[in-house]
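Bit of a strange request maybe. I'm writing a small parser for C-alpha cell strings and I need a real example to test against, not something I typed by hand. Could someone generate the C-alpha cells for this chain?
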Amino acid sequence: MNRILSLIGVVLVVGCGSPPDGPYESYYNNGQLMEKGTWKDGERDGPYEWYHENGQLRSKKTYKDGVEDGPSELYYNDGQLFQKFTFKDGELDGPYEWDFEDGQLRLKRTYKDGVQDGPYESYHEDGQLLSKGIYKDDEKCGEWFELGNTVPKKDPC
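Reply from user aminoacidic:
Good idea to test on real output. This should exercise your parser:
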C-alpha cells in the first residue's frame, strides 16, 4: 500500500515494497500537478514533465532506463521557454539554446558527447553579439569575436 507524505508544500508518494512502475503523477499541496511521466523497473522511462506550483510547465525531459536521453526543455515561471537541449545516453549532445526572459536568444552552443564542440554565440540582453567562435573538444579554437573585438586566431579547429 502507498503512503502520502507532505513536506514543505511537496507531496511525495512513498511505496511500500516495489518501486514505481507505469504512469506516475504527483501533486503540490495546492492540488496543482507537480510532475507526470512513466516509470519502468523503478526508473523514469520516456517523456517526463515537471510543473511550477502555479501550474505552468517547468521542464520536459526524455528518459531511457533512468538516464536522460532525448530532447529537454526548461521554462520560466510564466511558461516562457528558456533552455532547449538534447541528451544522448546521459550526456549533452547537439544544439543548446538559452533565452532571456523576453524570449531573445542569450546563448547558442553545440555539445558532442558531453563537451562543447562546434559553433558558439552569446548575446547581450539588447540583442547585440557578445561573443562568437568555435569550440573543439571543449577548447576554444580558431578566430573569436569577444566584447566587440576580433581575437587573434587560437589553435586551428
